[in-house]
């Protein structure tokens, strides 16, 4: 196409601006010139290329496998280009997953860009949880199973993902993921109980008692009683023992024996007392009981203590030393358990009055002759221990308890006759 008419020529050169954009491809220009006299020079021809297509690119990666290392992305352009970002570098190092856009320009000035994307970097340590064969209290082994956050390889425990606990404790699993990141997790078990439960007891009382005693089971852990109707208490109505059987929440069985020996429902009996027929002037009683006891007593002249009263004390002795007639000692015992025994009653005959002797012959102030006389008297008590007769200043003569007369030889003048008696009480 001849464009001479549209060209501008002067002494500096020739300039031509296409009227319409050139199409993409190779274009050839031929320039012929002639001077003013019509002489033409040798034509000059050259070619140039119009490039209107933006450059493209693709990216290669140092690895597309999962890795815990950096990944290097390298730009491969469709033609010679200059990278206009990334410090002009055609490589970009990913330290973590993400994307980066390479921007570039070709020799014709056309601009292009290519996106690099990395998703295969894994620098995160793997983690794990656990499932357990049971989390309830148990007397069996417990199996812990590793549940990792991603596929892993266990590097201890012989590569097993399960661990069997035979007792409470912990175990650390160590593992690595597919790209070599190392992690660990601790499995802990505290619900194994293989120990038999034990128990002690409390008692409603441990002192001597005449009441029922209630034993209460006090186990060392939570248990269920499997006998005794499931009750943790047992009421003893008499001395003896009872075996509680029980099981803990893990299934371990145990037993414990409650024993009671402080129940006493036997009444105490007073000992050491007996009747004393007397007569005596005073009586000392000493008593005890067939078991440890305290006492209360009463001395009176009634053969029965119909309404015992008063405090029980440690007194075990009493004296009756006044009065005449039959006196009664009533003693009642109470043991340590509170049992009150029957009243024990014994008697004694007291005599604290001297016998009265009356001389009937001779009479006082009588004048007698001859000197040989018989003295007679009476005594107000029938039973005596001795009768004495004394004449003047002589020594008393014992006549025997039954004597009521005696022969005497009187002296001249006034004679004094004394007759005395001693009764059985002395």
How is the topology of this model organized?
Blueprint: E1 8-10, E2 13-15, E3 25-31, E4 44-50, E5 57-61, E6 71-77, E7 81-83, E8 91-94, E9 98-106, E10 111-118, E11 128-132, E12 142-148, E13 152-154, E14 162-165, E15 169-177, E16 182-189, E17 199-203, E18 213-219, E19 223-225, E20 233-236, E21 240-248, E22 253-260, E23 270-271, E24 276-280, E25 283-286, E26 288-289, E27 293-300, E28 317-320, E29 325-335, E30 344-350, E31 357-361, E32 372-379, E33 384-391, E34 397-398, E35 405-409, E36 417-423
Parallel strand pairs: 24-30
Antiparallel strand pairs: 1-2, 3-4, 5-6, 6-8, 7-9, 9-10, 11-12, 12-14, 13-15, 15-16, 17-18, 18-20, 19-21, 21-22, 23-26, 25-28, 27-29, 29-30, 31-32, 32-35, 33-34, 33-36
């Amino acid at each position: 196409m001849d464009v001479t008419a549209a060209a501008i020529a002067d002494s500096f050169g020739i300039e031509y601006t296409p009227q319409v954009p050139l199409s993409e491809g190779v274009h050839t220009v031929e320039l012929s010139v002639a001077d003013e006299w019509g002489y033409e020079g040798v034509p000059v021809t050259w070619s140039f290329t119009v490039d209107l297509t933006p450059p493209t690119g693709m990216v290669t990666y140092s690895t597309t496998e999962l890795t815990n290392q950096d990944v290097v992305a390298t730009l491969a352009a469709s033609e010679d280009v200059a990278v206009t970002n990334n410090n002009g570098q055609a490589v970009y190092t990913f330290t973590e997953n993400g994307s980066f856009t390479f921007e570039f320009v070709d020799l014709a000035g056309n601009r292009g860009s290519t996106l690099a994307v990395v998703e295969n970097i894994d620098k995160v340590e793997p983690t794990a949880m656990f499932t357990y064969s049971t989390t309830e209290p148990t007397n069996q082994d417990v199996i812990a199973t590793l549940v990792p956050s991603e596929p892993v390889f266990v590097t201890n425990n012989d590569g097993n993902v399960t661990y069997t606990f035979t007792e409470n404790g912990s175990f650390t699993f160590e593992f690595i993921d597919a790209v070599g990141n190392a992690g660990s997790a601790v499995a802990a078990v505290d619900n194994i109980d293989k120990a038999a439960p034990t128990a002690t007891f409390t008692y409603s009382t441990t002192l001597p008692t005449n009441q029922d005693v209630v034993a209460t089971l006090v186990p060392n852990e939570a248990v269920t009683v499997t006998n005794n109707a499931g009750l943790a208490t047992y009421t003893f109505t008499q001395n003896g023992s009872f075996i509680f059987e029980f099981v803990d929440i893990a299934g371990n069985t145990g037993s414990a024996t409650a024993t009671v020996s402080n129940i006493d429902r036997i009444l105490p009996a007073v000992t050491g007392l007996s009747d004393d027929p007397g007569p005596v002037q005073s009586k000392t009683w000493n008593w005890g009981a067939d078991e440890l006891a305290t006492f209360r007593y009463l001395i009176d002249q009634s053969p029965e203590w119909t309404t015992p009263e008063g405090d029980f004390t440690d007194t075990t002795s009493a004296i009756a030393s006044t009065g005449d007639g039959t006196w009664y000692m009533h003693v009642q015992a109470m043991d340590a358990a509170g049992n009150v025994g029957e009243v024990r009653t014994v008697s004694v005959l007291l005599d604290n009055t001297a016998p009265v002797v009356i001389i009937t012959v001779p009479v006082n102030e009588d004048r007698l002759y001859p000197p040989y006389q018989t003295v007679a008297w009476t005594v107000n008590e029938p039973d005596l221990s001795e009768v004495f007769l004394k004449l003047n200043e002589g020594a008393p003569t014992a006549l025997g308890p039954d004597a009521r007369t005696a022969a005497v030889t009187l002296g001249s003048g006034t004679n004094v006759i004394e007759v005395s008696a001693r009764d059985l009480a002395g």
